[in-house]
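Team,

Forwarding the record for the chain on the shared tracking sheet. I've put the sequence and predicted structure together so nobody has to dig through attachments.
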Amino acid sequence: MGNRTPDSFGALLKEFRVRRHLTQQQLADVIGVHRNVIGRWEQGNVLPATKSTVLELIKHLQLDGQEARSLLEASLTGLSPYWLVPFHRNLRFTGREEVLKVLHMHLLPERALALTQSCALYGLGGIGKTQIALEYAYRYALEYTAVFWISAETTESIVASFLSIAEVLHLPERRETNQRQIVSAVRRWLTSHGQWLLIWDNMEELELLERFLPPTRHGCVLITARRQAFGTLAHALELSALEQEEGVLFLLRRTNLLGSCATNEDVCQLAQRLPAEYAAARELVQLMAGLPLALDQAGAYVDESGCSIASYLLQYRCQYHQLLARRGTLTTNHPHSVATTLLLSCQQVEQHNPGALELLRHCAFLFPDTIPEELFVVGAPYLSQEIGSVASDSYRFDQALAALRLFSLIRRHPETQTLSIHRLIQVILLAEMSKQERAEYQRRVISMLYELFPEVEYGSFLWGACERLLPHVLAAVSIAPDDAGRQKVAGILRKAASYLRECARYEQAESLFKRAIGIYEQVAGPEHPELAAAFNGLAHLYYDRAHYRQAESLFRRAIGIYERVSGPEHLDLASPLRGMALLFYRQGKYKHAEELYQRALRIQIAALGPEHQQTAYLLDNMAILYVELGKYEKAEPLLQRALQIWEQALGPEHSQISRPLNNLADLYLEQGRYEKAEPLLQQSLRILELTLGSQHPRIAYAVHNLADIYLEQGRYEKAELFYKRALRLWERAFGDEHPNRAYSLHGLARMHRAKGEYGQAERLYKQAIGLRARHRGLKHYETAKSMYGLAELHVEKGEYMRAERLYIQAVKIFEHSLGLTHPQVVKLRTAYSCLLEKRKRGTNERNLLVRLFYARNRSDGAIRTLTREKPATQILESEALTAFLVACCDLHPQAWARSADLWRTYQQWVQEHQERFPLSRQAFTSYLKAHGCQAARTNSARIWRGIGIIDRRRDMA
């Protein structure tokens, strides 16, 4: 290639401008630049900074298609005095702006006057190193006196590039037959000149750089390589895959769905116009993990075949290996396909270090990111003998990883002691394995993960290890058939599902539990203890989600298997027994719950001792039951003991410490000891947020209890904030139908009632009652608690009839569930008595009135004997009015009713009950005044104050 481009951008621009009879000033005005900018462009001193500027010039110069293409290509052509770049500029180059800026900062020509500036781009084959170097050369060509491209794979290719450079420089030695003399001449030129840029593309051996570059030089060096170690030779920049948005834009440009100058705004418009193509492009970028070569290869296939991206995606899912192996026919500067490129790297690794490739093959079955190095060190006994020999020696392990890093097949993260591998390397490695090889590697990896993944029983405290291994378990089981290791596949599924349940990732956990159960039933049979463990885990999950019927069935199956296989006192029984006890507790079957807790505790203490962590868990559960039963003197020492066991075993900041802290606070809340409850709840909340994060549903209990305290303290705004936060946490974890939401709904109802916002309070109480009735039952204690709250609201509103019916229901449920002496029962009965007192009659008086009224129709004489102080007619009239008031009215100082409406209601009642002694209008008025009602007048009607009419149809509902 010559040192100048014949049709330079400046010459073409001037020719087109003059043809349009435009001055430099006129052209500058229409595109919005200074006249001097046009002059500098035409003189060839600088090129337009952006493609959009060139497109504006094309528009205003009214160029045809060929002319527009010529001007655009000229704007992309380097204008250095000496130019040797063997590739055209990539018109579809996308993204990488930050990388280009960093390169430019380190390769500034003026800095090179004092010292050679060197940068190296390294990364996996196909990651785009060459394309970035090419874009850099074209973009910043004018800043260098010379730009030379060297193919640096081998000594021969480097020598060939130096010979071409000698031709471009017109060196006298270029005619020499001795190639060494020509190379030396080029080196002398580099020593005597400055501000040049040498691009060493695809360098495999760094010593070649020092061999060919002169020791003294004043230029810039840009290297592309797969290797990751450059020492002091260059400032190294690692290239990662394209980000999602960059990858989509590149693919849409490459398939010609968008033009080469398209922007993200154009992508948004295409997503509206062609949603299926846009969605397919996004998924394809994810499947190929943003590898530019793979996306270019996919784009080439779509371009050549004329198919859609969506069609290519469907084909890729079925024939990914064939497609990754096909490069296409219209490629020049990277002729190898993705599959060939990556396999060549793997073959070179195998020549350097066979153990390294063996390690890489095991990585193909794991999650591509954050692979713990400990998997191979600790898990070596479960892998191949070759891995064992490598992992047992730290030096050999480092050398194996160094061999993989040499070709950027793996990335090592020393700060986290993890590895990462590109997803397409995994795809290629898996595709190259035979069926037998793949089954053997799967068996090894599953076996290793099964042995290393901790058991997550209640009270298990190895969450850190679980979280590190979980993505690799999910990756391994996702590609493993159920017969690859069979029982160990089921075992690792069960372990991972148990951890996911603890993390409140219920849908994922349920799927794994069910898959594990299916394998166990097929492989181990219906009576195997491992199957019982899976039943027990799924039952606990159903309990968490308030699916109590399914939970009870599975708990019973697990208990049955353990009792038949291991005996009635085996330790494995403790977990499902505790689960059944929790279930009975939620159902209000407190006696059964206590019996199961005691049995589980007896088994656990016999097997593990009284100070074991799992024993503490049962103590904590039993204490919650005793708090519910009002046996506070039994609950507190159990909670204190559980707290002491966990603090000694785990330290004061472990997530498990929050349990007894929260439950102790709940006990103190029940006793009204708010000053002791609040600091415990704040400590519990702090620990949970620190250990589980701010969105875990376990946090909701502490948040809700703090809201209760703030409500009691009259801090309504804070109480509302905390109730709503607890509600969001439960809704996010469980959905809108989980009974835990009723805690927050009930609390919010209490808060609105305290503020006098009765409409909102009533609505929330009814929501809580409905939710609890659907899940706990209409006669459950928690349902009755919300009935009790609604009854108190009706009392405050003066709606005594409604309140009385709710009180009667709540009292019956409380007494049945908690017993006559429970503090909550005593409190409720006291409130009910106060209601009756407000209505100026006790229960006995009310019963007497009802008996008297209905007995009158049978024996008038019996009534007349009750009193000699009043005439019989007066007694019967008074009783009749009392019966009417009980049935149809509320007496309350704030109540009122229209006089006509009240009289009409009385007449209807008389007809319905066939009253034998109806009152006259005058007598009716007199008796109302005797009951404390006052006649009044408004602008529109006569009214009675102190009495209201009950809508009996609504009241009955």
